Amino acid sequence: KSFIFLVLFLSVILCDPSKPVWPDYFSCTVLETSEREPMPVVRRWFSDYDLNMDRIDGLVDFHGEHFFASVYHEHAIQKEYILLHRFDTIECFYRPINETMPKPDFSLYNYFGQSIIGFDTCYHWAYNDRTRHEFHQYWDSESLRKPMKFDWEDENRHRFRTFEYREFDIGKQDKSLFVIPEEIIKYCNPFQ
Question: If residue 161 lies in a helix (H) or strand (E), which one and from where to where?
Fold first, then answer.
């Protein structure tokens, strides 16, 4: 009887966790660093897969001036809207995009073990894309399986990006987050 318990206990301990799954709906705070921006850039990201839209808010530099930006991605119509707010000024631009809704596929990722991020125990996953010379790493919290961090490195071009996720709230987003007020959108200009 104790032998069966020991075998069951060891099989649970030695098994890899299930592969991570990227949520369909969420809002989170993102700290992003890259080879171009070594200091973390803080953004708020809202995403709703059913609406096929996401929105990213944060500070940006536009022609040497600092603005608060709200960037809306309408993936269904392949259009991006950029709203720039500064004091009593609102600028609105649009441009085409050629991308799908961000939703990582972790089926090719391998389990690397456990790590600690922000005092949370996390599962560490990695994928080495030898064809594109890219190395991807991903961490999700052990307890709630929420995204904690994502690293991407392009070995050929010596580029990297790191996304650290904070306040990751999984759930449907209010549709009003993705609506640009009519009094602003009617003055939107093509991005040049």
Answer: strand 159-170
User: What is the per-residue pLDDT for 157?
Assistant: 86
Q: Which two tokens stand for residue 60?
A: 């940006």
For the chain, what percent of residues have pLDDT higher than 70?
93
Rg of the chain over all Cα atoms, to the nearest angstrom: 20
Which strand (E) or helix (H) includes residue 72?
strand 65-74
- Report phi then psi at 180, rounded to 5: -85, 130
What span, in angstroms and rounded, lies between the C-alpha atoms of 115 and 120? Answer: 8
Query: Per this entry, what is the length of the chain?
Result: 192
User: Which residues 6+ apart lie within 8 Å of 95 measured at CB?
Assistant: 79, 80, 82, 190, 191
The more confident residue out of 61 and 121 is 121
Which residues are within 8 A (CB) of 61 and not within 5 positions of it... i.e. 6 or more apart? 67
Whole-prediction pTM: 0.85
